[in-house]
Specification:
The protein is mainly beta. It has one domain (about 5-60, about 80-125). Helix content is about 0%, strand content about 50%. Strand 11 and strand 12 (about 120-125) form a beta hairpin.
Length: about 130
């Protein structure tokens, strides 16, 4: 699991928010839940503090590849580092070992960053 913090030697552990995602995108915090789309599953889902995923909309039953396969889960690339660019231009690592970080959101109270790991099939949070 990734570590988060303002330096490359951060030791705070990220917490799993939800997994079982094929290509999660566009996380938004709304009405006390994290809402997101899943491109390959064709769904819009939300997850609450109980970590239970609720499908809010099923946009299509299956997205098939050009070869006709409906199991279109991509293969995972190498891990990435999420960077902080400070006002003075200094760049430090915020988190490492992320699987294609793609979209992030901060909770209403400003205490937690949630990052979508599209190729990791999950959203993770850093308090």
């Amino acid at each position: 699991m990734s570590t988060c913090g303002p330096t490359p030697t951060a030791t705070t552990d990220w917490k799993l928010v939800v997994d079982g995602i094929d290509f999660g995108e566009g996380p938004r915090w709304h009405l006390g839940r994290l809402w997101f789309s899943d491109f390959y599953q064709g769904t819009i889902s939300s997850v609450g503090h109980d970590h239970e995923r609720r499908v809010e909309a099923d946009c299509c039953s299956c997205r098939c590849s050009t070869a006709g396969s409906c199991d279109a889960r991509p293969t995972a690339p190498s891990s990435s580092t999420l960077a902080i660019v400070w006002a003075d231009g200094t760049v430090t690592a915020a988190a490492d070992d992320l699987s294609f970080p793609n979209g992030s959101v901060i909770t209403d109270d400003g205490s937690t960053l949630i990052v979508g790991e599209s190729m990791g099939a999950r959203f993770t949070a850093c308090p």
